[in-house]
Please model this.
Amino acid sequence: MLGWFCIRFYPMAEILARARSFLSFVDASPSPFHAVNEARTRLLAAGFQELKERDPWAPKPSGKYFFTRNQSTLIAFAVGGRYAPGNGFSIIGAHTDSPCLRVKPSSALTKAGYLAVGVETYGGGLWHTWFDRDLTVAGRVIVKDAAGLLSNKLVHVKSPILRIPNLAIHLTPAEERGAFKFNKETELVPILATALKGALEAPVPGDGGKHHPALVALLARELKCEAADIRDFELCVADLQPGAIGGIAEEFIFSPRLDNLHSSYCSLEGLIEAPELDADENIRVVALFDHEEVGSESAQGAGSALIDYVLHRIAAPAGAAADAFERAMAKSMLVSADMAHGVHPNYSEKHEGQHRPSLHGGPVIKFNCNQRYATNAVTASILREAALLAQVPLQDFVVRNDSPCGSTIGPILSAGLGLRTVDIGCAQLSMHSIREMCGTTSVSQAIDLFKAFFANFVAIDKRVSID
Model:
């Protein structure tokens, strides 16, 4: 009932408009590099100024800024008009990566008269969902020009160049049919072409046969460069089918990469749309990290020193008091936003009986006493106060005792910074499938919750008496 209660606050036209805007973001973001590029475009259009890590920074009250690292992580921040060193940060964190297949450094395979592309499994995907899909590649390519300069170019092939075909039922033993067993190294391999067609392609100079010439030639055509100028690339295999609004009442979103581009998009929109920046005492931050799906331990992951030194750089400029950063942390809070498990109608017993989030019931606060999530009673209460102001319903989730529990960047950042944290996410089905599912309402609910958090956290926190 909470979901339908919330729909009464939102005209259906607004729900669908926001859902379609989100889908345009997802469709333009088949890789973390594209997601960051799309976020960059939206921030620039909203008046944010791009910074470079190598340059000096001089952020000013009411100023809006962002920077990128590795083209796969982005941190944006808006300085409150009443900010002074020692004031806090209102932070929302999410991630840009999703489980997928990634092209190997040497990918050229020939199998039974076919050209195939060797891939690695990135993260914990539901890999059986990748069979019999129209697949393509997207990512970044390093190109060397005539002057010897190395540049980074994005590529997204808009045609179905790859496919992983299933084995016919007549050739599959009954046991394998029932369990859908397959070997990820030898049987989860996309087909590119027949060997006969591939033999017509000229080899790429300097490539050493690492990749099929047909694939490299295609990348060169997409980038309008010579194949020999391509020095290296990082390519994700992606589903070519765009996201869609579905269900008889247009209440569902069917899309790849909901986990976690949904949270990335909504946090960005919340930062862009949040009112009363001139009156805010805090700095509002959105941090979108790469590599969450594989543990966050990279130079651009949440487990790195990146967020620590960036917040130091902002909170303690030259001339600030020596303890400005430490005082800021005590006045700060992180909302770790990552998608949540909605109750599945065909497997409802997999959820704990009192914690079964619905797709329209509002963002989900995640709890785990073993600290797989960083929520506690204080941070949950602060978020509930923001949700009341936004008129957005909330749900609770805790995993069953006989079930494993996922985790997020929340505990990593909470422990690394000593930062109050609440873990939340909108409910979805089919998490880590090539095609996932959530409710259209969830986009509006998340954006409005994040706007309320940014606009009201300082006032709410002043009413909290703990330490």
